[in-house]
Amino acid sequence: MGDRRSILRVWLPLLAGLYAIYATFVLGPGPHDATRWFGLALCLIGLSGVIVGRATLGRSFSVRARATELVTAGIYSRIRNPIYISSLILITGLMLIVRRPVIALLFVVIIPMQMIRARREAAVLEAKFGDAYREYRKRTWF
Asked: What is the DSSP string of 20-65?
């Protein structure tokens, strides 16, 4: 069963993300210049961060804030919210690929939303893990 969960949690989203990025890069509007290639690099970095963050969380991942385990290994040893940071990198890359400034409006919605979610998650984790979470928060970024 562990292999099946790994497929659903990591490999299917990775393949779907790679396909979406590929299709956007190849078929999207605009010239195929250095800006587009830089956008592709950002998309791949962002998608990688999302997938690594999700894989590292394993069963601790949830859409709603809940505290099952304090994950402090891997990418979480440096960044408390790598999925949020990585998704912003991914969106920035998409904006550069398709050259649609209107995509920047997503930041107006996503950044406050992610900040609110991060605060909720922090409150839940602090309530459950107390000093261990406070120490973890001191040595990590966002």
From this structure: HHHHHHHHSSS--SHHHHHHHHHHHHHHHHHHHHHHHHGGG--SS-
**Residue 48 · residue 17 · CB < 8 Å:** no
Query: What are the tens digits of pLDDT across the range 72-88?
Result: 989 999 999 999 999 99
Q: Which amino acid is at 53?
A: G
**Measured between alpha carbons, how far is residue 16 from residues 11, 23, 80, 83 in Å?**
9, 11, 25, 17
Q: Which helix (H) or strand (E) holds 128?
A: helix 105-129
Burial-class residue 133 by CB neighbours within 10 Å (0-12, 13-18, 19+): buried
**Nearest-angstrom CA–CA distance, 35 and 53:** 27
All residues at 6 or more sequence positions from 109 whose CB lies less than 8 Å from its CB, including other chains? none
Report the distance separating Cα 58 and Cα 5, nearest Å: 9
- Both structure tokens of 99: 């050259």
pTM for the whole structure: 0.84
